[in-house]
Amino acid sequence: MAQFNVGDTAFIVDNRIFLREVVIKRATKDFCVITYKDTGATIQIRHSRLFSSKEDAVKVIPVYYTSKV
Question: Under a CB-based contact definition with an 8 Å cutoff, are residues 28 and 46 in contact?
């Protein structure tokens, strides 16, 4: 699992098909507060849902959705 710091850019897969870029606002032991770059919305999620690169995030998207990314 990658360690994220405040201000880092990461990627998240929403609804198993949408790849979105986020910025880390706060990081604790188990959770991160992130802000979506496209909408500005802020949520708290577990570290396990974050990916350090776009390529790593695409690997978890099912094959039949990969052509849409």
Answer: no
How much is the pTM? 0.83
Q: Determine the CATH number of domain 9-66.
A: 2.30.30
Residue extents of the structural domains in the chain = 9-66
DSSP per-residue string spanning 5-52: -TT-EEEEEETTTEEEEEEEEEE-SSEEEEEETTT--EEEEEGGGEES
Q: How does pLDDT run across 24-44, given as a tens digit for each residue?
A: 999 999 999 999 999 999 999
